[in-house]
Structure formats: C-alpha cells, structure tokens
Amino acid sequence: MKLDLKEIQAPIESEMVQFELKFRDFMKSKVKLLDHITNYIVKRKGKQMRPMFVFLTAGICGEINDATHRGAALIELLHTATLVHDDVVDDANYRRGFFSINALWKNKIAVLVGDYLLSRGLLLSVENGDFQLLKIVSNAVKEMSEGELLQIAKARKLDITEEVYYQIIKQKTASLIASCCAVGASSNSDDPELIDKMLNFGEKVGMAFQIKDDLFDFGEDEIGKPVGIDIKEKKMTLPLIYALSQSDWLEKRRIINLIRNRSEDRKAVNEVIRYVKGSGGLDYATAAMNRYYQEALIILEEFPESIYKTSLLGLLSYTIERKK
Q1: For position 264, what pLDDT does the model report?
Q2: What does the DSSP assignment read for 35-76?
Q3: Average pLDDT over residues 105-129
Q4: Per-residue pLDDT tens over the stretch 231-257
Q5: What is the CATH number of domain 5-321?
C-alpha cells in the first residue's frame, strides 16, 4: 500500500497540529536562552514519524486522549534529549541539514539543554501520573544507550556477527519505535496483551527501518545519507557482515584492512561497496528487511479495518520504500 506521509497523517491531522502546540508548551522555560534554543529545536524537527506511530497506534487500539498526547510529547522530549547529547558525543555540527545545538551554542550548553529536555519529559509524566508510559519510554532510552555502547565496543575490533548486529539495531533503533507503539496502546488500554502486541509490532517495524537505512549506504548518490558513510565510520552493517561471511580468510582480511586503515579513502570505500554488492550482501539484507515487514504486517492484519489501520499499513510500507 503506497501512501505518502500527508495521506498517512490524514486521520490524525488535527492531533498532529495540537501536538505541535502542546509540545512547544511542554518545552517552555523562563530562561530566555533556553527558550530561544528550544524554539530552534522545534523549527527543525523532521517527518514527525514518532508521534505519528503513537497517535495511529492509539487510534487502532481505542480513543486518542490527553494521555496519548502526553505520551507522544514524552517520547519526543526524551528522544530529542538523546539526539542533542549524541551530537556532542559525535562532535557533529549538523543534524538534518541544520546546525546542531553544540555547533551554535557549544558543548556545555548543549549538554545542559539535553538535561533540561530529559527533566521536562520526566516531570510531564510524574505530574500526570503516567507511570506506565514513563516506564515504557525509560526502558527504550536504556536500550538505546546499551545498543550504542555495544556498537562502539564492537566497532573497535570489526568483529560484529549477524546475531550481534540484530541485537544492536533492536536496541538502538527498534526499541524507540516499539516504545511509540506501546505508548499509543497504553495511553487508552490496560490490556497487557494488547500493549505487548503493539510493542512487538513497533519492534518489527524498527528492525525493517534500520536495515533499510543500512541499505542506503550502498545506494546511489541522490538517495538518503551520503553513500559509504557507514563504511567511513567503520560501522558493520548487515550487507557487509553477510558479504564477509561468504569470503575466504584472505579476502575477508583484505576488506577488513581497507575499512580499518583506508576508510577515509573514497576509492577504498567504493571498492568495499562493489565487494558487498558482488557478494550478494544487498539481496540478503533486503530479504531480511522484508521478513520483518511481513511479520509486522501479520500483527496489523489481526485488527479490524479502520482509517487508523489503513494509515499504519501505509506507514509500515513507507519504512521500507522510502528514498531517504
């Protein structure tokens, strides 16, 4: 089912407008500098897929209510805090084509802004008694941190297995989308089976989403992130892991040496890309992505037809068909 993001958003259009206003309100501070920076953050927000998952999941499970809005805001606040901190850790000057907070206001202010966003999210939940929502999202942040640290630890040796790769992307990416879906369900239902089902759905979507992201690294120049950026950063993704598993010892050592010692060399990066394509790495990763897509689809098919289900099906398709 091919729907663009505008069509996917249609059933929750008014909720998304309200969300923007409420999210701005939740971020407000009496400190002018902080207010200035949070306004900058709001203006450069991306596709808003996380709140979309929250609202559409709530819609498929029951009524969208105030708790749904608070859950969506909680996820955005905590996730934005992690992104601000990530940019400091990575010494990144840009995010989504805009200057990062640390590039404009330096690291000390960026870390404090991240801390402020984190505290606003915690207070939003505590003040409204949304402890189940807080538990779901806090667990996702824990998983994301562990996944990032696991990837850093493994990247030094370039010895990530397929099993470890799946563990990393489950924690780093899938846990956040899973929390969005679980929060949507939990905002209007106390049924643990239903909440767990939507958590599982979100996890499948997140796994497919990340594999699609990894495939971009071997694509054409006009789509997605810069080609070869994962190789340059010495990240072991599924296409590369599979290609290496199909090689003899000498060839494997040669490719790993290229990544370890010449990842800044465009010719070496292109050689690795050609090697992965020639070894069937892209086909293997695409098949894995489609398996997760099908597993998510099976979960959605259990729900009765509704405008929310149609949009969730569209959002699921979008995750594996997107161009960036």
Answers
A1: 78
A2: HHHHHHHHHT----HHHHHHHHHHHHHS---HHHHHHHHHHH
A3: 85
A4: 777 788 999 999 999 888 888 888 888
A5: 1.10.600.10
